[in-house]
Amino acid sequence: MDVVQFITRxxxxxxAENLVAAGMLFATAxxxxxxxxxxxxxxxxxxxxxEFALPHAVMTHPSARADLLFYITRKAxxxxxxxxxxxxxxxxxGYATNRVLGTIFGIDQPVFGEPGPVTVVLFTLTMLLAYDxxxxxxxxxxxxxxxxxxxHKVHHxxxxxxxxxxxxxxxxxxxxxxxxxxxxxxxxxxxxxxxALNPVELTVFGINVYIMRNILMMDxxxxxxxxxxxxxxxxxxxCPHWHQLHHSTAPQHYDKNFGLLFSFWDRxxxxxxxxxxxxxxxxxxxxxxxxxxQSLSGLYLLPLKKMGRRIARQVRRLRGIPAQPRSxx
Length: 329
Known about the structure:
With 329 residues, this protein is mostly helical. It has helices at 3-13, 16-40, 46-53, 56-59, 62-82, 88-105, 117-144, 146-156, 171-181, 184-195, 209-216, 240-246, 264-269, 296-300, 302-318; strands at 203-204, 207-208. The protein contains 15 helices and 2 strands. It is globular and about 65 Å long.
């Protein structure tokens, strides 16, 4: 294969939809950086804006370097893990829900047949709510149960936020999250498959609404230092500044603001904490071994080792074997 064929294949893989989505992501990040800069700067200059958007101390921080290495290696291995699992869990649970409810209520054909525009909109909205509630519940469990927390600590070990910190997620953690996401959204999808034949997600300007959600919820921006608030929309949409509080090491911020897109789950379940305007946060973990999470081995292997130790302690406890004393403690 020559160079021209190689480049042609790459271009063929980049669809117009992906280009538009990438353009919107860049525009959103740039716009938020500009807004945050204009709100805080006393004098305006391109050099100062560049330093504000990409601070030297942040971009050269060991945590930022770890984010970059982790992002590259994770992008290389995740397709092999998640392509088979991407929609398998939702489809499996959806099919089981369809069969069980169809048998109970005697439904063997979709009630309304082909979906119309109203059906598509309602389907999309309910699936968005199902996915968001599913994320909230799993995210809460990640903080409440030590076994899951050992994996989730990879994400919280970031001591600076550089956008791609959003992908600082252990592969096993993501795989388990995908499996859990099959439950609530899968049940929702299964019910809809009884109502309308082959319901499809809504698109906006040709872009799938879930891609639009990922852009509009500013997952990249909320993993930066840009203090972006949505004003009155904060009552519905979780703004970047509120999520940045979730990464804070301050005790009063622990286990707060678990939401993904919508903020009303946190308000409903009592986990909402509203930061002061322009409030600064210190990010990271308070664990003694926090520095060990700033390398690839620490990000990939340390959580598995700690989970193994927890399993071993639990097995010894169940078998009535006294716990072994920790050396150097």
